Amino acid sequence: MPNARPKTRESHPETARDRLIAAAVESFAAKGFHGTTTRDIASAAGMSPAALYVHYASKEELLYQISRSGHDVTLRLLREGAASSDDPMEQLLAAVRGFTTYHARGHTSARIVNYELSALSAEHYEEIRAIRRTINQQMRRIVEAGVAAGVFHTPNPRMTALALLSLGVDLARWYRDDGEWSDQEIADHYCELALRIVGARP
Amino acid sequence: MPNARPKTRESHPETARDRLIAAAVESFAAKGFHGTTTRDIASAAGMSPAALYVHYASKEELLYQISRSGHDVTLRLLREGAASSDDPMEQLLAAVRGFTTYHARGHTSARIVNYELSALSAEHYEEIRAIRRTINQQMRRIVEAGVAAGVFHTPNPRMTALALLSLGVDLARWYRDDGEWSDQEIADHYCELALRIVGARP
Questions:
Q1: What CATH code is carried by the domain that includes residue A99?
Q2: I want to staple B36 with a disulfide (CB 3.0 to 4.6 A). Which of B13, B27, B83, B118 is the partner?
Q3: Nearby residues of A140 by Cβ (< 8 Å), 6 or more positions away
Q4: pTM of the model
Q5: Taking residues A68-96, what's their average pLDDT?
Q6: DSSP state string for B147-195
Q7: pLDDT digits (tens, 9 = 90+) for A46-79
Q8: Which chain A residues contact residue B28 at CB under 8 A?
Q9: What average pLDDT score do residues B2-17 get?
Q10: CA-closest candidate to residue B34, choices A12, A186, A28, A92
Q11: Domain span at residue A27?
Protein backbone atom coordinates (compact mmCIF):
# COMPACT_ATOMS: atom_id res chain seq x y z
CA MET A 1 0.00 0.00 0.00
CA PRO A 2 2.50 2.69 -1.04
CA ASN A 3 -0.22 5.34 -1.16
CA ALA A 4 -1.24 4.65 2.41
CA ARG A 5 2.22 5.54 3.77
CA PRO A 6 1.55 7.57 6.93
CA LYS A 7 2.89 11.14 6.97
CA THR A 8 4.35 10.66 10.43
CA ARG A 9 7.19 8.45 9.05
CA GLU A 10 8.65 11.53 7.33
CA SER A 11 9.33 13.08 10.70
CA HIS A 12 11.37 10.09 11.99
CA PRO A 13 14.94 10.72 10.78
CA GLU A 14 16.20 7.09 10.89
CA THR A 15 13.18 5.83 8.99
CA ALA A 16 13.56 8.52 6.35
CA ARG A 17 17.24 7.66 5.97
CA ASP A 18 16.48 3.95 5.66
CA ARG A 19 13.74 4.62 3.11
CA LEU A 20 16.13 6.71 1.03
CA ILE A 21 18.74 3.92 1.11
CA ALA A 22 16.11 1.36 0.03
CA ALA A 23 14.93 3.72 -2.73
CA ALA A 24 18.53 4.29 -3.88
CA VAL A 25 19.21 0.52 -4.05
CA GLU A 26 16.05 0.06 -6.12
CA SER A 27 16.88 2.96 -8.44
CA PHE A 28 20.58 2.10 -8.91
CA ALA A 29 19.62 -1.54 -9.65
CA ALA A 30 17.10 -0.44 -12.28
CA LYS A 31 18.99 2.36 -14.00
CA GLY A 32 22.59 2.24 -12.79
CA PHE A 33 24.19 4.90 -10.58
CA HIS A 34 24.92 7.32 -13.42
CA GLY A 35 21.43 6.91 -14.90
CA THR A 36 19.70 7.68 -11.59
CA THR A 37 18.89 11.22 -10.44
CA THR A 38 18.40 12.33 -6.83
CA ARG A 39 14.86 13.18 -7.96
CA ASP A 40 14.30 9.49 -8.91
CA ILE A 41 15.47 8.40 -5.46
CA ALA A 42 13.46 11.01 -3.57
CA SER A 43 10.40 10.12 -5.62
CA ALA A 44 10.81 6.36 -4.99
CA ALA A 45 11.04 7.16 -1.27
CA GLY A 46 7.91 9.33 -1.46
CA MET A 47 9.89 12.46 -0.58
CA SER A 48 10.85 15.75 -2.21
CA PRO A 49 14.39 16.25 -3.57
CA ALA A 50 14.85 18.96 -0.93
CA ALA A 51 13.93 16.46 1.81
CA LEU A 52 16.54 14.03 0.44
CA TYR A 53 19.28 16.63 0.90
CA VAL A 54 18.37 16.98 4.58
CA HIS A 55 19.64 13.41 5.01
CA TYR A 56 22.29 12.88 2.31
CA ALA A 57 24.56 15.45 0.69
CA SER A 58 24.47 13.79 -2.73
CA LYS A 59 23.63 10.71 -4.77
CA GLU A 60 27.25 9.63 -4.28
CA GLU A 61 26.78 9.83 -0.50
CA LEU A 62 23.92 7.33 -0.81
CA LEU A 63 26.06 4.99 -2.94
CA TYR A 64 28.86 5.30 -0.39
CA GLN A 65 26.54 4.40 2.51
CA ILE A 66 25.23 1.35 0.60
CA SER A 67 28.77 0.32 -0.29
CA ARG A 68 30.16 0.92 3.20
CA SER A 69 27.36 -0.99 4.85
CA GLY A 70 27.69 -3.94 2.42
CA HIS A 71 31.44 -4.15 2.90
CA ASP A 72 31.16 -3.81 6.68
CA VAL A 73 28.71 -6.72 6.85
CA THR A 74 30.88 -8.84 4.55
CA LEU A 75 33.99 -8.23 6.64
CA ARG A 76 32.07 -8.93 9.84
CA LEU A 77 30.83 -12.28 8.45
CA LEU A 78 34.38 -13.35 7.59
CA ARG A 79 35.69 -12.23 10.99
CA GLU A 80 32.90 -14.10 12.75
CA GLY A 81 33.81 -17.16 10.67
CA ALA A 82 37.45 -16.87 11.68
CA ALA A 83 36.52 -16.40 15.35
CA SER A 84 34.03 -19.27 15.39
CA SER A 85 36.60 -22.04 15.98
CA ASP A 86 40.29 -22.84 16.37
CA ASP A 87 39.97 -25.33 13.50
CA PRO A 88 40.75 -23.70 10.10
CA MET A 89 38.30 -26.07 8.40
CA GLU A 90 35.45 -24.93 10.65
CA GLN A 91 36.54 -21.31 10.16
CA LEU A 92 36.45 -21.73 6.39
CA LEU A 93 33.02 -23.37 6.45
CA ALA A 94 31.54 -20.63 8.66
CA ALA A 95 33.09 -17.86 6.56
CA VAL A 96 31.95 -19.35 3.23
CA ARG A 97 28.45 -20.06 4.56
CA GLY A 98 28.03 -16.48 5.81
CA PHE A 99 29.53 -14.91 2.68
CA THR A 100 27.49 -17.10 0.30
CA THR A 101 24.18 -16.62 2.11
CA TYR A 102 24.68 -12.85 2.28
CA HIS A 103 25.38 -12.56 -1.45
CA ALA A 104 22.35 -14.70 -2.33
CA ARG A 105 19.85 -12.96 -0.06
CA GLY A 106 21.23 -9.48 -0.67
CA HIS A 107 21.98 -9.97 -4.36
CA THR A 108 20.47 -6.65 -5.46
CA SER A 109 22.56 -4.46 -3.17
CA ALA A 110 25.59 -6.77 -3.54
CA ARG A 111 25.57 -6.14 -7.30
CA ILE A 112 25.47 -2.37 -6.77
CA VAL A 113 28.27 -2.56 -4.20
CA ASN A 114 30.47 -4.54 -6.61
CA TYR A 115 29.51 -3.05 -9.97
CA GLU A 116 29.36 0.68 -9.14
CA LEU A 117 32.64 0.95 -7.26
CA SER A 118 34.13 3.33 -9.84
CA ALA A 119 31.29 5.81 -9.25
CA LEU A 120 32.51 6.54 -5.71
CA SER A 121 34.47 9.71 -4.98
CA ALA A 122 38.24 9.24 -4.82
CA GLU A 123 38.19 9.49 -1.02
CA HIS A 124 35.33 7.04 -0.57
CA TYR A 125 36.83 4.67 -3.16
CA GLU A 126 40.07 4.54 -1.17
CA GLU A 127 38.16 3.86 2.04
CA ILE A 128 36.20 1.00 0.44
CA ARG A 129 39.33 -0.38 -1.24
CA ALA A 130 40.96 -0.56 2.19
CA ILE A 131 38.03 -2.60 3.52
CA ARG A 132 38.22 -4.85 0.44
CA ARG A 133 41.91 -5.44 1.10
CA THR A 134 41.02 -6.38 4.69
CA ILE A 135 38.31 -8.75 3.40
CA ASN A 136 40.84 -10.41 1.06
CA GLN A 137 43.37 -10.63 3.91
CA GLN A 138 40.81 -12.15 6.26
CA MET A 139 39.97 -14.95 3.81
CA ARG A 140 43.66 -15.42 3.05
CA ARG A 141 44.47 -15.77 6.75
CA ILE A 142 41.97 -18.60 7.08
CA VAL A 143 43.50 -20.38 4.07
CA GLU A 144 47.05 -19.79 5.35
CA ALA A 145 46.11 -21.07 8.82
CA GLY A 146 44.84 -24.29 7.23
CA VAL A 147 48.00 -24.67 5.16
CA ALA A 148 50.17 -24.03 8.24
CA ALA A 149 48.18 -26.65 10.19
CA GLY A 150 48.70 -29.14 7.35
CA VAL A 151 44.97 -29.56 6.69
CA PHE A 152 44.75 -27.38 3.54
CA HIS A 153 46.95 -27.91 0.50
CA THR A 154 47.38 -25.13 -2.05
CA PRO A 155 50.49 -23.63 -3.65
CA ASN A 156 48.95 -20.12 -3.77
CA PRO A 157 46.83 -19.26 -0.71
CA ARG A 158 46.46 -15.65 -1.87
CA MET A 159 44.91 -16.47 -5.26
CA THR A 160 42.94 -19.31 -3.70
CA ALA A 161 41.38 -16.85 -1.23
CA LEU A 162 40.39 -14.54 -4.12
CA ALA A 163 38.79 -17.49 -5.92
CA LEU A 164 36.80 -18.40 -2.79
CA LEU A 165 35.52 -14.82 -2.58
CA SER A 166 34.70 -14.81 -6.33
CA LEU A 167 32.27 -17.69 -5.87
CA GLY A 168 30.22 -15.60 -3.43
CA VAL A 169 30.53 -12.29 -5.27
CA ASP A 170 29.42 -13.74 -8.61
CA LEU A 171 26.56 -15.59 -6.94
CA ALA A 172 24.91 -12.15 -6.61
CA ARG A 173 24.94 -11.99 -10.44
CA TRP A 174 23.23 -15.33 -11.17
CA TYR A 175 21.13 -15.91 -8.05
CA ARG A 176 17.36 -15.57 -8.52
CA ASP A 177 14.84 -15.43 -5.68
CA ASP A 178 12.61 -17.81 -7.68
CA GLY A 179 15.55 -19.99 -8.83
CA GLU A 180 15.73 -23.77 -8.44
CA TRP A 181 17.95 -23.75 -5.33
CA SER A 182 17.47 -22.07 -1.97
CA ASP A 183 20.29 -19.98 -0.51
CA GLN A 184 20.85 -22.83 1.99
CA GLU A 185 21.25 -25.43 -0.76
CA ILE A 186 23.76 -23.19 -2.51
CA ALA A 187 25.62 -22.52 0.75
CA ASP A 188 25.82 -26.28 1.42
CA HIS A 189 27.28 -26.97 -2.03
CA TYR A 190 29.64 -23.99 -1.85
CA CYS A 191 30.99 -25.20 1.52
CA GLU A 192 31.84 -28.51 -0.16
CA LEU A 193 33.45 -26.66 -3.11
CA ALA A 194 35.46 -24.50 -0.69
CA LEU A 195 36.91 -27.59 1.02
CA ARG A 196 37.89 -28.95 -2.41
CA ILE A 197 39.38 -25.63 -3.53
CA VAL A 198 41.69 -25.43 -0.49
CA GLY A 199 42.57 -29.13 -0.81
CA ALA A 200 41.23 -29.91 2.67
CA ARG A 201 42.22 -33.24 4.14
CA PRO A 202 40.93 -34.00 7.62
CA MET B 1 49.20 10.04 -31.07
CA PRO B 2 45.42 10.62 -30.89
CA ASN B 3 45.69 14.02 -32.62
CA ALA B 4 47.52 12.53 -35.59
CA ARG B 5 44.59 10.28 -36.53
CA PRO B 6 44.39 10.42 -40.33
CA LYS B 7 41.13 11.69 -41.83
CA THR B 8 41.02 8.80 -44.28
CA ARG B 9 40.03 6.35 -41.50
CA GLU B 10 36.61 8.05 -41.27
CA SER B 11 35.78 6.90 -44.77
CA HIS B 12 36.43 3.20 -44.02
CA PRO B 13 33.13 1.85 -42.63
CA GLU B 14 34.55 -1.15 -40.71
CA THR B 15 37.20 0.98 -39.07
CA ALA B 16 34.64 3.59 -38.06
CA ARG B 17 32.42 0.87 -36.58
CA ASP B 18 35.34 -0.66 -34.68
CA ARG B 19 36.40 2.74 -33.39
CA LEU B 20 32.88 3.42 -32.14
CA ILE B 21 32.82 0.05 -30.35
CA ALA B 22 36.17 0.79 -28.70
CA ALA B 23 34.95 4.27 -27.73
CA ALA B 24 31.71 2.82 -26.31
CA VAL B 25 33.63 0.26 -24.21
CA GLU B 26 35.82 3.05 -22.85
CA SER B 27 32.85 5.34 -22.12
CA PHE B 28 30.62 2.64 -20.56
CA ALA B 29 33.53 1.50 -18.38
CA ALA B 30 34.14 5.05 -17.16
CA LYS B 31 30.58 6.30 -16.66
CA GLY B 32 28.27 3.29 -16.96
CA PHE B 33 25.82 2.73 -19.81
CA HIS B 34 23.14 5.05 -18.43
CA GLY B 35 25.64 7.81 -17.65
CA THR B 36 27.09 7.78 -21.17
CA THR B 37 25.62 9.82 -24.03
CA THR B 38 25.99 9.04 -27.74
CA ARG B 39 27.80 12.39 -27.89
CA ASP B 40 30.40 11.04 -25.39
CA ILE B 41 30.95 7.97 -27.57
CA ALA B 42 31.12 9.88 -30.85
CA SER B 43 33.52 12.36 -29.27
CA ALA B 44 35.78 9.58 -27.90
CA ALA B 45 35.85 8.10 -31.43
CA GLY B 46 36.70 11.50 -32.92
CA MET B 47 33.39 11.63 -34.80
CA SER B 48 30.21 13.72 -34.79
CA PRO B 49 27.02 12.35 -33.19
CA ALA B 50 25.44 12.34 -36.68
CA ALA B 51 28.31 10.17 -37.97
CA LEU B 52 27.69 7.71 -35.12
CA TYR B 53 24.08 7.22 -36.23
CA VAL B 54 25.26 6.24 -39.70
CA HIS B 55 26.75 3.12 -38.09
CA TYR B 56 24.62 2.39 -35.02
CA ALA B 57 20.94 3.18 -34.45
CA SER B 58 21.40 3.92 -30.75
CA LYS B 59 23.60 3.67 -27.68
CA GLU B 60 21.76 0.45 -26.86
CA GLU B 61 22.73 -0.97 -30.27
CA LEU B 62 26.40 -0.41 -29.34
CA LEU B 63 25.92 -2.13 -25.97
CA TYR B 64 24.18 -5.01 -27.72
CA GLN B 65 27.05 -5.43 -30.22
CA ILE B 66 29.62 -5.43 -27.38
CA SER B 67 27.52 -7.91 -25.40
CA ARG B 68 26.79 -10.16 -28.39
CA SER B 69 30.43 -10.25 -29.44
CA GLY B 70 31.62 -11.00 -25.87
CA HIS B 71 29.10 -13.81 -25.41
CA ASP B 72 29.85 -15.27 -28.86
CA VAL B 73 33.58 -15.44 -28.07
CA THR B 74 32.91 -16.98 -24.66
CA LEU B 75 30.65 -19.66 -26.10
CA ARG B 76 33.16 -20.39 -28.87
CA LEU B 77 35.97 -20.84 -26.31
CA LEU B 78 33.89 -23.35 -24.36
CA ARG B 79 32.89 -25.22 -27.53
CA GLU B 80 36.50 -25.35 -28.68
CA GLY B 81 37.42 -26.71 -25.25
CA ALA B 82 34.76 -29.42 -25.53
CA ALA B 83 35.88 -30.31 -29.07
CA SER B 84 39.58 -30.36 -28.20
CA SER B 85 39.62 -33.93 -26.83
CA ASP B 86 37.52 -36.99 -26.02
CA ASP B 87 38.80 -36.85 -22.46
CA PRO B 88 36.49 -34.77 -20.19
CA MET B 89 39.49 -33.72 -18.09
CA GLU B 90 41.29 -32.29 -21.12
CA GLN B 91 38.03 -30.66 -22.25
CA LEU B 92 37.61 -29.00 -18.85
CA LEU B 93 41.20 -27.76 -18.78
CA ALA B 94 40.95 -26.27 -22.29
CA ALA B 95 37.58 -24.64 -21.54
CA VAL B 96 38.72 -23.16 -18.22
CA ARG B 97 42.01 -21.93 -19.70
CA GLY B 98 40.22 -20.18 -22.58
CA PHE B 99 37.48 -18.71 -20.39
CA THR B 100 39.93 -17.51 -17.71
CA THR B 101 42.39 -15.96 -20.15
CA TYR B 102 39.61 -14.17 -22.02
CA HIS B 103 38.16 -12.64 -18.84
CA ALA B 104 41.60 -11.49 -17.67
CA ARG B 105 42.75 -9.94 -20.96
CA GLY B 106 39.32 -8.52 -21.84
CA HIS B 107 38.38 -7.50 -18.31
CA THR B 108 37.08 -4.04 -19.28
CA SER B 109 34.58 -5.25 -21.88
CA ALA B 110 33.79 -8.40 -19.84
CA ARG B 111 32.66 -6.20 -16.94
CA ILE B 112 30.38 -4.18 -19.24
CA VAL B 113 28.98 -7.36 -20.78
CA ASN B 114 28.15 -8.78 -17.35
CA TYR B 115 27.21 -5.66 -15.40
CA GLU B 116 25.07 -3.78 -17.95
CA LEU B 117 22.87 -6.68 -19.03
CA SER B 118 19.72 -5.01 -17.69
CA ALA B 119 20.29 -1.99 -19.96
CA LEU B 120 19.63 -4.10 -23.09
CA SER B 121 16.27 -3.86 -24.86
CA ALA B 122 13.85 -6.69 -24.02
CA GLU B 123 14.49 -8.35 -27.38
CA HIS B 124 18.29 -8.13 -27.13
CA TYR B 125 18.19 -9.22 -23.49
CA GLU B 126 16.31 -12.39 -24.46
CA GLU B 127 18.80 -13.11 -27.24
CA ILE B 128 21.78 -12.71 -24.87
CA ARG B 129 20.04 -14.73 -22.15
CA ALA B 130 19.66 -17.57 -24.66
CA ILE B 131 23.41 -17.50 -25.38
CA ARG B 132 24.11 -17.44 -21.63
CA ARG B 133 21.94 -20.51 -21.16
CA THR B 134 23.91 -22.23 -23.94
CA ILE B 135 27.17 -21.21 -22.23
CA ASN B 136 25.95 -22.68 -18.93
CA GLN B 137 24.81 -25.86 -20.74
CA GLN B 138 28.14 -26.21 -22.51
CA MET B 139 30.08 -26.10 -19.24
CA ARG B 140 27.54 -28.41 -17.61
CA ARG B 141 27.92 -30.96 -20.43
CA ILE B 142 31.66 -31.12 -19.85
CA VAL B 143 31.10 -31.69 -16.12
CA GLU B 144 28.39 -34.28 -16.78
CA ALA B 145 30.59 -36.11 -19.30
CA GLY B 146 33.31 -36.38 -16.66
CA VAL B 147 30.83 -37.65 -14.06
CA ALA B 148 29.44 -40.19 -16.56
CA ALA B 149 32.99 -41.36 -17.33
CA GLY B 150 33.67 -41.78 -13.62
CA VAL B 151 36.54 -39.27 -13.60
CA PHE B 152 34.64 -36.32 -12.03
CA HIS B 153 32.75 -36.59 -8.76
CA THR B 154 30.14 -34.01 -7.84
CA PRO B 155 26.57 -34.38 -6.57
CA ASN B 156 25.37 -31.30 -8.48
CA PRO B 157 26.99 -30.90 -11.95
CA ARG B 158 24.68 -27.97 -12.80
CA MET B 159 25.65 -25.81 -9.81
CA THR B 160 29.25 -26.93 -10.14
CA ALA B 161 29.29 -25.67 -13.75
CA LEU B 162 27.93 -22.27 -12.61
CA ALA B 163 30.66 -22.09 -9.96
CA LEU B 164 33.34 -22.84 -12.59
CA LEU B 165 31.98 -20.01 -14.76
CA SER B 166 31.82 -17.66 -11.74
CA LEU B 167 35.57 -17.96 -11.21
CA GLY B 168 36.19 -16.61 -14.72
CA VAL B 169 33.44 -13.98 -14.69
CA ASP B 170 34.54 -12.49 -11.36
CA LEU B 171 38.17 -12.50 -12.47
CA ALA B 172 37.18 -9.60 -14.75
CA ARG B 173 36.31 -7.66 -11.56
CA TRP B 174 39.56 -8.15 -9.66
CA TYR B 175 42.13 -8.62 -12.47
CA ARG B 176 44.55 -5.75 -12.97
CA ASP B 177 46.88 -5.38 -15.96
CA ASP B 178 49.64 -4.36 -13.54
CA GLY B 179 48.72 -6.98 -10.93
CA GLU B 180 51.12 -9.47 -9.39
CA TRP B 181 50.11 -12.42 -11.60
CA SER B 182 50.03 -12.76 -15.40
CA ASP B 183 46.90 -14.10 -17.06
CA GLN B 184 48.83 -17.33 -17.70
CA GLU B 185 49.69 -17.77 -14.02
CA ILE B 186 46.05 -17.25 -13.11
CA ALA B 187 44.90 -19.67 -15.85
CA ASP B 188 47.34 -22.31 -14.53
CA HIS B 189 46.03 -21.98 -10.97
CA TYR B 190 42.39 -21.88 -12.12
CA CYS B 191 42.89 -25.10 -14.11
CA GLU B 192 44.08 -26.75 -10.90
CA LEU B 193 41.11 -25.30 -8.98
CA ALA B 194 38.70 -26.53 -11.69
CA LEU B 195 40.02 -30.11 -11.33
CA ARG B 196 39.51 -29.87 -7.58
CA ILE B 197 36.02 -28.37 -7.93
CA VAL B 198 34.81 -31.24 -10.14
CA GLY B 199 36.51 -33.81 -7.91
CA ALA B 200 38.72 -35.08 -10.75
CA ARG B 201 40.49 -38.38 -10.19
CA PRO B 202 42.60 -39.65 -13.07
A1: 1.10.357.10
A2: B27
A3: A157, A158, A161
A4: 0.90
A5: 98
A6: HHTTS---S-HHHHHHHHHHHHHHHHHH--TTSSS-HHHHHHHHHHHHH
A7: 999 999 999 999 999 999 999 999 999 999 999 9
A8: none
A9: 57
A10: A28
A11: 2-56
Q: Do A15 and A73 fall within a single domain? A: no
- Nearest-Cα distance to chain B for A75, in Å, is 17
Domain membership flag for residue A202: no
CB A61 within 8 A of CB A123: no
A86–chain B nearest CA distance, Å = 25
Which one of A26, A34, A125 would you mutate to disrupt binding with B, by most B Cβ within 10 Å of its Cβ?
A34
ipTM: 0.89
Q: Which residues of B touch A167 (CB under 8 A)?
A: 163, 166-167, 170
Of A25, A56, A87, which residue constitutes the final position of a domain?
A: A56
B94, B174: one domain: yes
- Residue B60, exposed/middle/buried by CB under 10 A (0-12, 13-18, 19+)? middle
Q: Using pLDDT thresholds of 50, 70 and 90, give the confidence band for residue A145.
A: very high
- Measured in residues, chain A has a length of 202
- Residue A7, sorted as left (phi over 0), alpha (psi -120 to 50) or beta, turns out to be alpha
Same domain, B70 and B47: no
Q: Does residue B89 sit in the same domain as residue B28? A: no
Q: Which of A93, A186, A160 is nearest to B158 (CA)?
A: A186
CA distances from A93 to A100, A143, A196, A200, B198 (A): 10, 11, 12, 11, 18
Q: Is A131 on the interface with B (CB under 8 A)?
A: no
* H-only helix segments in chain A: 13-31, 38-44, 49-55, 59-83, 88-105, 107-115, 122-148, 157-174, 183-197
Q: What angle is formed at CA A114 by the lines to CA A113 and CA A115, rounded to 5 degrees?
A: 100
In chain B, residues with a C-beta closer than 8 Å to the C-beta of A32 are: 32-35, 116, 119
Same domain, A143 and A183: yes
Residues B85 and B112 in one domain: yes
Rg of chain B over Cα atoms, rounded to whole angstroms, equals 19
pLDDT higher than 50, residue B6? no
Query: What is the distance between the alpha carbons of residues B94 and B85, in angstroms, rounded to a whole number?
Result: 9
